[in-house]
Amino acid sequence: MSKQSKNEGTTPSSCLKVDAQGPSAVQKLALIAAGGLVVAGVMVSVIAPPAGVTRAPVAHLESGDLIDVSALPVISVESTELSHLKPETNGLTVAEMRQVLAYDLDLIRDGASVPRVFLASMPSALADVQETAVKKALFYKSVLPLVLQVNDEILANRARLVRLNAELSSGAEPSAVDRLWLSMMSERFGVSRNDTEALLKNVDVVPPSLALAQAATESGWGTSRFTREGNALFGQWTFAEGNLVPTDRGDGKEHMIKRFEALIDSVRAYARNLNSHRAYREYREMRATLRAKDKPLDGRVLAGTLHRYSELGVEYVNAIRAMISHNSLSRFDDARLARELSEPAA
Predict the structure, then answer these.
(1) By three-state DSSP, how is residue 218 classified?
(2) Angle (CA) 192 198 202, round 5°
(3) CB atoms within 10 A of CB 180
(4) pLDDT of the residue at 83
(5) What is the pLDDT of residues 320-338, one digit of tens each?
(6) Strands (DSSP E) found in the chain
(7) Phi first, then psi: what are they for 42, rounded to 5°?
(8) Helix 208-219 and helix 314-326: axis angle, to 10°?
(9) Greater confidence, 288 or 59?
């Protein structure tokens, strides 16, 4: 694909970043009946845990002009997919953004928890930030909680798979609800029914260092047109009508960039893409190998398997690895969300 125009993004998107199919409406209703609804409040969304190539210095943000966060608009949302989340955070000023995301990235590296605060959309004002270090830090602080939330959701499913794998291995019969859930998961990831060993290769997290590097690269640090207009952090391709048409799309090409209701939906789709698309089987195999050897899920190592993510191939891999190294993104791989909403961020 030809390179995107400057106002859309900084790197080309991949022809393989197609949107994966989710569960059917009937399956979703079954899961909702079995598991209940998630309740979230949004302008800045707060979600309870589901279970138990640019050189830049590490940024220290000033607090900026103080604002009354409680006075900002809040929208109540009740949905397992948060599909009705509205991009109310798009209009935040830089000062408001700093106040909402008031935590220190260095302390996160040293073990402090990440506040459970999720932006519904990337504030347009981010594009006006002239200081590169400040822009990057604000971007990381906007996206990191989303990545950690999605990883927590994946880990909850993975824990359930581990339990069911042990039950099936012992000859036990899973409950009706677990059988329905396994059937849906098998369909989603294209594996044989009850093949929990295969599912465990698909249901696993994305290292935050890798997700942050790809999001920064694909979204131009959160300032691309696709991010502003469609909450698209990862340049995911689709052929469905009603999505974002690249300005410089080549003749004869029909792809579009998938738009999302909220940033977290973009992160979920990205994780599902890596966990299900045939182009990223090498990624999943490498991740499973690291797990089997009890080694950390290294973003730079796993980036080496994503040469099919972009038309740039190996050049893209090298750019992502450089992004991780030069911005010290591996420091976030052990980051964890605060367990309670009231827990101090730092």
Answers:
(1) helix
(2) 110
(3) 16
(4) 37
(5) 999 999 999 999 999 999 9
(6) 39-42, 44-45, 75-78, 118-119, 237-238, 256-257
(7) -135, 135
(8) 110
(9) 288
Q: How far apart are CA 110 and CA 104, in angstroms?
A: 10
CA distance 270 to 148: 13
Report the candidate in 28, 22, 42, 8 with the shortest Cα–Cα distance to residue 264. 42
- What's the CA gap between 162 and 175, in Å, rounded? 15
The residues that bridge with 238 in the sheet, in sequence order, are: 256
In single-letter form, the type of residue at position 281 comes to: R
What would the pLDDT profile of 191-223 be if each residue is shown by its tens digit?
998 899 999 999 999 999 999 999 999 999 999
pLDDT band with cut points at 50, 70 and 90 for residue 249: low
Number of H helices, E strands in the chain: 12, 6
CATH class of domain segment(s) 25-332: mainly alpha
Q: What is the pTM of this model?
A: 0.75
Alpha helices in 204-307 (DSSP H): 208-219, 225-230, 263-276, 281-292, 299-303
Q: Helix axis angle, 263-276 relative to 176-189, nearest 10°? A: 80
Q: Could you identify the residue written with the tokens 């409950």?
A: 175
Q: How far apart are the first and last CA of the chain?
A: 43
Q: Hey, how many other C-beta atoms are within 10 angstroms of the C-beta on 25?
A: 8
Q: Is 142 helix (H, G, I), strand (E, B) or coil?
A: helix
Report how far apart, in Å, the C-alpha atoms of 209 and of each of 11, 38, 148, 213, 341 are.
18, 27, 11, 6, 24
Q: How far is it, in rounded angstroms, from Cα 71 to Cα 44?
A: 12
**CA 329 – CA 56 distance, rounded (Å):** 11
> How many other C-beta atoms lie within 10 A of the C-beta of residue 104?
17
pLDDT, position 252:
66
Alpha-carbon span 292 to 108, nearest angstrom: 27
Query: For residue 291, what are its two tokens?
Result: 């797990």
Give dist(CA 338, CA 118) in Å, integer: 12
